[in-house]
Structure formats: C-alpha cells, structure tokens
Amino acid sequence: MMFFNRHAWLPVLLGTALALTAPIGLARPSSEVATATPTQTPEVPALVNDLEQRTFRFFWDSANPVNGLIPDHYPGDSFSSIAAVGFGLTAYGVGVERGYISREQAIERTLATLRFFDRSPQGDSEDDDAGYHGFYYHFLDMKSGKRFARWTEVSTVDTTLLLGGVLFAQSYYDRDTPQEHEIRTLADRIYRRVDWNWAQVRAPLISMGWTPGGKFIPHDWEGYNEGMLVYVLALGSPTHPVGSDAWTAWTSTYDRSWGQFGGQQLLNFGPLFGHQYSHVWIDFRGIRDAWNRKHDLDYFENSRRAVLAQRAYAIANPDGWRGYDKNVWGLTASNGPADVIVEGHRQREHFRGYTARGAGLGYHVDDGTIAPTAAAGSIAFAPELVIPALETMKQRYGADIYNEHGFVDAFNPSFHVHTPLRTGKLLPMGWVDSEQLGIDQGPIVLMIENWRSDFVWNVMKKNPYIRKGLVRAGFEGGWLSTHTPAQ
C-alpha cells in the first residue's frame, strides 16, 4: 500500500513520510462570520453542536476571500490544499443550513472559489500553472494560485476531493438567480474539463499523479483507500469517462486488504481517513456493487467495522502508550511532535512528525499520537462510540487540545522529549499541536452534519454525475433504486 505525503509528491510506504512547511496564509476576520446557535436536541450533545460550528469557522476564517483558497494548515503561514478547498466548499452549505452564515455570504465565497479554478492556468510548465489536463496541483500558492513548489504533484485524488466540493456546489445552489446559475455553470465546466483518460497510464487503473519533472507517478489507485471516490467521479464524467473495467480493476485488488483485525472482518486500511473521505459525499448505506454483494456488506458497514476495530486496538494498547482507553482513541494521517527515536519504557520509541498513523491488517504505525478527527470524522458510522470519545478527550485535556476552531489536529500524552518540535508545544500532559489541518477538519464538520441530518448526502444524491458514476460501477439498491437526480 502506498501513501502520498501531503508535503511531497514522492510515493513512500505508509507511515514513513517526512513533512515540510512553507508560507503563506490569509485570514478572514472571525468577526465577519454570523454568530448562531444551532437548534439543539437531546440527541445532539452540546459538545457536538459546539464542535461543528467551531470547525466550520476554520474554513471560513482561514480562506483567502479573493480566490477562495484554503490553507493546508492554520494558523500560521501555509500553502493551499486543494482538498481542503473541496471540504470548505461543502462546509459553506452546512454553514447556511445551520445559520452560521447567510446564503449570500456562501454564494459570494463559492463564486470567488469557482471563478478562480475555472480561470486558473493549465499547462505543463514547472512554475506558472495551477494544473494540467483539468487536474490541479496538490498545493497552490495562497495568493497567486499557481503551483506552490516543485515538490508538489498534479494529484488525481486531491483533485477528486476538490471536485467533491465543486459538485456539491452545483447541486446545492439550485435557485433561479444569476449568481446561483453561474455557480452551476462554473462547477459543470470545471468537472467536464478533467481528463480522466489522460491519467490512465496503466489502464484501466488511474495514476496517483503527474509532475513536469518526473512525469507520471509510477503508482496507481488500487487496494482499498480513499481512491474509491476517484473512480466514481471518473466513471461519472460526461466528457472523459473511464470504462467500467476501471472499477473492476480497482475492486480486484481488495483481496490484499480483506481480513480480520480487532475482532472485525473488513476491508482494511490502517488510517481512518481512508474510511471517511469518500463517505463525506456519498451515502453508501444500502447500495452495493458486485464485490459488496459477494461479501454481504456495504461500504458504510465496512467503515463502521474499521472504527470498531481501531477502538478495540486502543483498548488492547499493545505498545503501552499513555492515555489510550475505550474513550481515547483515533489513528489517522495527522501532525505529530517530531521525527525522533528515544529509549522508551519498553523499547526504542520512534516518534514522528506528519505521517499516516493507523492500525489494521498488516499495518501498524502508532507512536502514541491521537488525532481527534479519526473519531470525530467517524461519528456517522458509530455515534455511540464517537460521542463518548469526544466528550472524554475534551474533559480530560480541556483547553490544551480545544480552541476557537475545535480540536487541535493531534496530541500525544506519551511524548515528553525536549527536542526541536515540528509543530506544537510541550505541556505537562505531553505534546499538543498548535495547528488544525484542512483535510482533517473537513470530515469533522461534514460527517457531524451527515450524522445529524443526512444533509451532504442528500444534496449529492441530486447530482446526476454521482449517480452515473455509481451505476456504471455496478451499484444497485438503496437510494439508487428510488431517488431521481436533478437533470
């Protein structure tokens, strides 16, 4: 299984990635956000209400209002993550529905974003373009919107996550006004421009990406991970669709990941983000492809099993890290304290900076760092386990890990090494991050809303491209049998 570090195009084995940092971020003053207290019911605890609004504010406060670009990490200087932009475009709709911002505010920000991506330069230059063949560079300069640095790739999966937000905007802003009509037109043009066939270097699979210096990355989307959404959108394209054999090729690699872990039989992927990202935009409950039918489960149930397995792993705590228990758990790609090896209580302990932490069949990367998004972004799959986890982490560590934009990206109660830190600070309780990451904040706010109202899922069910992609992949049943998308 391969993993792309969010700070480099070079593919590396999961869990061994190194991280880089660089400028520039532009903040939107928090005072410009309409304050609101969402309607609270006994089924939605106060912390979940508060967390949803604070996490939404991350996207609203951190974006560059001129071009809509959202930073990879915030606060502090940062480049933009196009995946974070996709999460942000979707979060703006949540903000409207919850009363955090007005529809007019969301339209203004969404139009700025879509106009930028529609007009941004596409080409094969090293430094003067934002993308190529309709795809975009993983990281863009927050001001110019061009490729941030030569280590960043044209990314098929990050473009896909951006498109999740673009297609959300296309279906959500459905009123007969000039502004909302423009949103729909721009969203359609951005999606239609993506040349999925170009990325099929080793057809029928889809390559992970391209760079002018190194050309196509020598790895494809296979196994089981967040690449599921890549294939759904590629199959749904009205202009450059891949063949249905692409989904068959994708699922044919599942045998590498299918097996027992943590008392569960599931398609394994160690970091929980791989079980969350595609589910942000697609409701997989009750719809099944051929692989699902053969194994008698849907992908939603598979993600639930992944959550149960990871919680069981934390309870077992085979490495003896501090703080792990039934209500403090969560491994995924996240920040970490530093890349350093120390003599531990039982063995040499290898702590890491940014990496893909996780636990699953044949995969174990764990240095005691807990990422709250691993639990919070899984709330739709197992609310009875996630809500107590969020409440316990907040109660136990308080303001050290919870601030104006919700939970910090990560914390590590086992790290007490006085060494230069990648990010964050040392406190009596251990290492605590000082940043939030857009790709970790996104699943928090959007999966909270999906859990409480099915909102994002219901909007995306209206999108004909999503439906087409699922049908061409062989999905049947559930809402696909009854729901008629907008034309």
Any overview of this molecule?
The protein is α+β, with helices and mostly antiparallel strands. It has one domain (2-482): Alpha/alpha barrel (Glycosyltransferase), CATH 1.50.10. 38% of the residues lie in helices and 13% in strands. The protein contains 16 helices and 24 strands. The protein has a three-stranded antiparallel beta sheet. A three-stranded antiparallel beta sheet has the order 21-23-22, with no helix packed on it. The model is unreliable at 7-42 (pLDDT under 50).
List the helices and strands and how they pair.
Blueprint: E1 2-4, E2 11-13, H1 46-62, E3 73-74, E4 80-81, H2 82-98, H3 103-119, E5 131-132, E6 135-136, E7 139-140, E8 154-155, H4 156-172, H5 178-193, E9 209-211, E10 215-216, H6 228-236, H7 245-251, E11 258-261, E12 264-267, H8 277-281, H9 290-295, H10 299-316, E13 333-334, E14 340-343, E15 348-351, E16 355-356, E17 358-360, E18 363-365, H11 372-376, H12 383-397, E19 402-403, E20 406-407, E21 411-412, E22 425-427, E23 430-432, E24 436-437, H13 438-453, H14 455-461, H15 464-472, H16 479-482
Antiparallel strand pairs: 1-2, 3-24, 4-7, 5-6, 8-9, 9-10, 11-12, 13-16, 14-15, 17-18, 19-20, 21-23, 22-23
Helix pairs in contact: 1-2, 1-13, 2-3, 2-4, 2-13, 3-5, 4-5, 6-15
